[in-house]
Every structure is written in C-alpha cells, then in structure tokens.
Amino acid sequence: MPSSVNSYSEAPNTYSYDGWDYVAISDSGEYVYVAGGSNNNQIMSTSDYGDTWFCCYVADNQGSIQSIAVDSTGQKVVYVTNGGYVKISTDWASSFTTSTYNNTLLWSSIAVSGDFVTMYLVASNDYLYRSTDSGSSWPHELQSTFSTNTHALSVSGNASYVGLCFYYDYDGVKLSQDTYGDSFSNLNLNSDYSYTSMAISGDTGQ
C-alpha cells in the first residue's frame, strides 16, 4: 500500500491549481497515479479505485514531470522529467530512486511493459530508446521518431507493440507491430489532426 503524505476523499482536480496532466493505471484499476499539480511536480495516488487519494510524492528540483507509467500491479512506478531524470519506485510511489540522469537528452514520454522489464523513452533528440533491464541502462537507440513533435507513447503488455502519436500536421500515429520498436508503419490517420494520446490493448494490440 502507498504511504500517505496527505490524504483526501475527493478527486485530485479539486485541489490542484494547474491540473493533472498524466495518468497511469494498474491492470485491475485499483491503483491509479496522476502527475502534475501546481508546479507539475506532484504525484497523487489511489489504491481503492479512486475513492480516496494520497499525495504520495513531490519531485523537487528535477524539472517538470513529463510522463508516468506503472507495471501491471501498480506497485512499480516510473516517471520522467524535462530535467533529464528517469525516476523509479518499487513501493507504490512512496519513494523514488534515480535510474537515469542525462541533462542533454531530456525525456518527454515513457511507457513500460506489464512486468516492468522493458521500457521505452522518447528523448529530445527525436529518438526512441529501449531498456530491457527495468531502466538500469538504455543501450538500444532505435530509429528517429520521425518528427520533433512526438506527443504520446504507448506499449502493449509484453512491449512488442509500440505506438507513437504526433502533434498537428506531422506524422499522425505510427505503430511498431511485434517488432519492439525496431520498425514502424503509418496507421494512415488524417495528419491534419493532432493526436494527443493512445492506448494498446493486451499483448497483441488487437
């Protein structure tokens, strides 16, 4: 269970000044994490399907949180900041350790497999990175994400399917189908629109 810094009986948007930008949910839906808040550095969590919420972590002096992801159980949590940090928790976001710090490759999005072993990062150099050791190292620099306007990243439960969304008037939505991000195909959606988020179901994306 997550430890409580402050507890609330209402949804987190009732006491945030600037809103909550990112969400991650366990497979059961029991554990939910939202990141953002007044300084874009807070993480709130619930372990009872949203009935009560806890301010479980404040990320000071690390830059703004850009993305958050969890394993299938909700126990393991990872977030990235535009200050170059990848931070990992194995105790329901009660505490975090720095997995990676790189102040030249500022991270914009992260997604993880259900077992928390395979992770993908979108970096400011327009490349997609893959880790196969729970974020301890990032040896796999994959191909460019096709534009400088990657908005969202999503993976299947086994991480073999990887999806990317792009801002208005660029590349739309692309999917790596069973290739673990080594190659992508265009989903042929209208590139005149901005695609801001996506989800991939199960292990096969079907």
Total number of beta strands: 17
Total count of helical runs of at least 4 residues: 0
Strand order of the largest sheet: 1-5-4-3-2
The amount of beta strand, in percent, is: 35-45%
Low-confidence stretches: 3-9, 13-17
Set down the secondary structure blueprint.
Layout: E1 7-8, E2 20-25, E3 32-36, E4 42-46, E5 53-58, E6 65-70, E7 77-81, E8 85-89, E9 97-101, E10 107-112, E11 119-123, E12 127-131, E13 140-144, E14 150-155, E15 162-166, E16 173-176, E17 185-186
Antiparallel strand pairs: 1-5, 2-3, 3-4, 4-5, 6-7, 7-8, 8-9, 10-11, 11-12, 12-13, 14-15, 15-16, 16-17
Question: What would you say this structure looks like, in words?
Answer:
This protein is mostly beta strands and 206 residues long. Helices cover 0% and strands 40% of the residues. The strands form four sheets. It has a five-stranded antiparallel β-sheet, with no helix packed on it. It is globular, with a radius of gyration of 16 Å. The model is unreliable at 3-9 and 13-17 (pLDDT under 50).
Give a nutshell description of this structure.
With 206 residues, this protein is mainly β. It contains no helices and 17 strands.
Defining key terms:
single chain, 206 residues, mainly beta, five-stranded antiparallel β-sheet, four-stranded antiparallel β-sheet, 0% helix, globular, disordered N terminus
